Amino acid sequence: MASFDPASVECPAAHLIGGRIVRAEGVIPLRRPSDGRDFAQCPIADASTVDAAVSAARVALAESDWGGIRPRERTRALHRWADLIEVEAENLARLEAVASTRPISELLAGDLPVTVEQIRFFAEFADKEGGAVAPTAEDSLGLITSEPHGVVGAITPWNFPLSMAAWKIAPALAAGNAVVLKPSELTPFATLRMAELSVKAGLPPGLVAVVLGDGPTTGAALVAHPDVAKVSFTGSTAAGAAIMANIARSGVKPMTLELGGKSPQVVFADADIDLAAASIAGSVLANAGQACVAGTRLVVEAPVADVLVEKIIARLRSIRPGPTWDAATAFAPIISERQLGRVDGIVRAALAAGAEALVGGQRLDRDGSFYAPTVLAGVEASSPAVTDEIFGPVLTVQTFVDEDEALRLADHPSYGLAAGLFTRDLSRALRVTRRLHAGTVWVNRYGRSRDHILPTGGFKGSGIGKDLGREAYQANRRSKSVLISFQ
């Protein structure tokens, strides 16, 4: 029922500035990852276009007094926006499916409902998070107040465009800010339409702006703009470092960076092996491994390694690849031929160095950029297959004999985004959880739930600050200390 003809979807080259769709010349040719065909072009917003969006956001913020109105009014406006997204869910899903790696059925069943939930979740923070009275001397009153930053500059990745946009826009708006967002140039169209719906919902025109473009031109201009008071970014660690450097060259401002990962899944011999196999295979298959939290390093206790890997492989063999506009598709393409080539290059290098592909190890023989789910055994710890964020459906296998070795293998020198742990021993679970260097640890499961109160963010090179949860709302406010002496 949800299947559609990709040719029926119009993807306009445009920006959203001042509450209006502004048509622009398409510059970046885009190809559908499902079949490799050209389907649209993305414009590149230059510094003057970014400045127009930021200026319009500042005007909307000032004229509407968005940050100063009764907080419940912000809550109601965000709920109206969520209502419209629900109404237009199928159109938004088509806009995203045609351009991205997200199958239409998964968008309608997961991504869109989650996006709406996240907006509603943050809407409710607007009138529930305030300041505090600080303990001071009896002849004074100490207050800790908070206020919005102003204009927040946000940049989102291509792998989950709509939900990532909600991560950025919803807490910023609930906290009283304006937002100028740059989606990935590979998957911009659904985000553009979703932002346009905010105006229809009654949010002040200009309060939410979307500028399309690439990182070196559009992204760089946005994060360095002097009127952007805070930056929020999700993407690779290398891109995050470049953003930090760009901000440092132009000044100092707070930032939230949710960056790359190479997450381990540690399985002890006492674990529920069927549960572990389902969770691990699901992590590899989800969006074809194109997720920053993908658990692509299996670290398993030696006695159960063979049986666990066999069960994982059985699940990986059951994939249903297909175009993202087909409702029957349950395995996604790789975002581009360039990225598929990178995945294949890392796998081939590992095989040449002595690793063994227990399953997969090559692209799928079909139209589009599809790569077979792959399990690599016998990999060296220094292999890029183990150390690098591949962003593809590739799982490496390493075995251990005791808890200390498990933790040594699980630790990564650069990343610390997430980790999975499978054991029936509660004491071990609590002990190992404390010793894992990761911003999120899942025990006897792997992957985010719809408990939006749980923040997400990494250690080490996996990021700074948190998305989701109370922490994301608070990151969009700045605190002010006030001390009043009684006369």
TrEMBL record:
Keywords: Oxidoreductase. The keyword Oxidoreductase applies. The active site is at 258. Residues 27-482 form the Aldehyde dehydrogenase domain. The keyword Oxidoreductase applies. One of its GO terms (molecular function) is aldehyde dehydrogenase [NAD(P)+] activity. InterPro entries: Ald_DH/histidinol_DH (IPR016161), Ald_DH_C (IPR016163), Ald_DH_CS_CYS (IPR016160), Ald_DH_CS_GLU (IPR029510), Ald_DH_N (IPR016162), Aldehyde_DH_dom (IPR015590). Signal peptide: none annotated. It comes from the Bacteria. PROSITE patterns: ALDEHYDE_DEHYDR_CYS, ALDEHYDE_DEHYDR_GLU. SUPFAM superfamilies: ALDH-like. Belongs to the aldehyde dehydrogenase family. This is Aldehyde dehydrogenase family protein. It comes from Alsobacter sp. KACC 23698.
